[in-house]
Please model this.
Amino acid sequence: MAKPKYSNKRAFSRSTTNEVSKKNMNNKRARRNHHAPVPDHPSSSTDSGASIDELSNVASEDEQEEVPVYKEPTMYDNLLKTLGSASESIANAYKRRQRDEEGKSDTDEDIENDVESLSGSEEDEDESENEFESDALDTNDVQGEDEIEDEDEDGDGDGDEDGDGDEDGDGDDDDDDGEEEVAGNKSEGSSSFSAHLDYKLSKEEVENLPTKKMKYKHRLEAANCKWAATRELNLEDSYSKSPYGLNMKLYDHWLNSYIASGGQDLHSSRQRSFFSLCNSYRDILHHNKKPFYLKGREEDSNIMDAYLLHSLNHIFKTRDLVTKNDKTMAKQKESKGEEVLNSEKFVDQGFTRPKVLIILPFRSIAFRVINRLIQLTPEGHKVNVDHVDRFSDEYGSGRSDDQEDEDVRTKSWKKSKPLDYQALLGANNNDRFMIGIKFTKKTVKLYSDFYTSDMIVASPLGLIDKIETAVVEKEKDVDYLSSIEVLIIDHADVILMQNWDHVPPVIEQLNHIPSKQHGTDIMRIRPWYLDGQARFYRQSIVLASHVHPDINNLFNNYCLNYEGKVNLSREHEGVLPKVLLQVTQIYERIDDTELSAPDARLEYFKKKVFPKIKDSVQGGIMILINSYLELVGVRKFLKSQDASFCVCHEDTKRSDISRTRAWFFQGKKKIMLYTERAHFYFRYKIRGIQNLILYSLPERKEFYPEIVNMLDGSHSMNCTVLFSRSDRLRLERIVGTRPGQTHGDIR
Model:
């Protein structure tokens, strides 16, 4: 294994002993027991001719000034104090921090040391009081992410893969270039990275960020879209020239890949524009991303490339900064000693190594994203890709765990589904996964341990499993989520079709103070981590094909980046022209001012809709319901009315679904309750529909014309839609932002 690097650099090179602790305590007693002040210039007291009374008064005033004013210790102070009980060097660092806050300089300490000789009789007492500082920490006890970086340079403990110790394996000149990228490109590349992480929040900002309601006052254009921002942002002024804030090697590889794929003008491209938006480190909500499975492969790929480049850029710049500081400390520690170790410019790390978390709904999508991530990685960093065969088997064409017993007939059944269904759910739709990715000097390591990973790609269910396991089994933890600085949730609309309730608990688990030290070098952790402010520095990027109240709630209440927010601003054209049949579509408004929206909807159905259909002889009535909770209420009511109905929802067994569809088509059951999630996961074409009732509008706008067109062959060709104020977002997507101009039947 590679030799630990930081542990030899930090804390243990400090030449402090118990005598320093004794002197500090003796200095305080000297000030208490001796009224004569110690002058800055000893000769001045003899030349002044001051009286004894005057000297006494001066001494009294000085004694009053020495009375310490109590100041509430910060989380950083408490942590240093706790660790100081085991480490003399950390204890001394805590004392120096206290001196700095009290406005004392090293000169003041020297003067106090002169006074120490006046109180030598109390030395034994002081020694016993400072006994807790006498134990020195072993050199293997304090180490951090630096050790991981050192393992990278040496091939992760397997020896130097390339015969040299350079980070990129290209010699010293290459390392120097990496350092210049961090420091030299500040106006273009590293300015947003360093400015974002180096910013110090004021006490007022920390108090206001969780509760302050931000207003979108500013407008901008990026990625061929219009955006609203809470703070002014001019992307062209900041990133108008190459490399657009990117690490130079990453930029060169991106440019070559873009040209090889047939691109002409990178500067004007959608992916460059969206990357610049990501590189502003604002929280971003993009809720109109055309997904790859709905004939939007080019747009989806551009957005995906942009956030993957931003993630790689953040990881590489973090590593460049740590590597640069390692070298600087190694050069200066012998000449400057403690001054170097205590310098704030070497504070460059978090509690743990993982910095990027990407949340995705299915393994098939993770397979697509990670493959593209590897393609965007510069050639010098991916000479080897570890465990790629295992990754292809488990995330590619491999079957999900609950589908291993499906036969060839099931495969042909899937091929009969619409193309968008095949693209999204026809591959590996396992929704329980979590994989760590680590970047070394020449290797991309898949399935790396989470604590040594740079990036984690996971599903909400996979993360929840780890979190719940850590709660039950106390020896386990999820502290690897404590230092996430870039959070990306892609295909959030698909996650809504799974179980959105898993997402908020996952976000709440991010950026907590870890339960264990995990080998972290405490002296190099950024202060805002130690003060519990990391969530205010985390950038969150949420991407979806449409917006939803739950997504809005997450973005508004869980994404608290001090840089501000950027939200998409657009108008919808609607999907009514995609209804190919001459169907009478009647929209009925529900008054939900007195009752909650679900209760008001159910009451309206009982009093206004059901009386019209309960005595129907014809049958063939399909009721589309958005959520399972609404289904429970309607099903309970129909049972109480002894209605003839059947149910098809996402948890219904396949054999029961086939029987239910047959009963409905043959007229044995007059009413079918059909949920949107069932349609999302199965995409059945229901036959025998004569009358369609949309109890609640579907979230996915493409489902509306698809389901209405199922009325083909109906005699009545009627569709009734119930909506209330809470359905405004869904209604806009279906009938357009200005429904009065597109559809005149809304009343």
Remarks:
- The two ends are 73 Å apart (CA to CA).
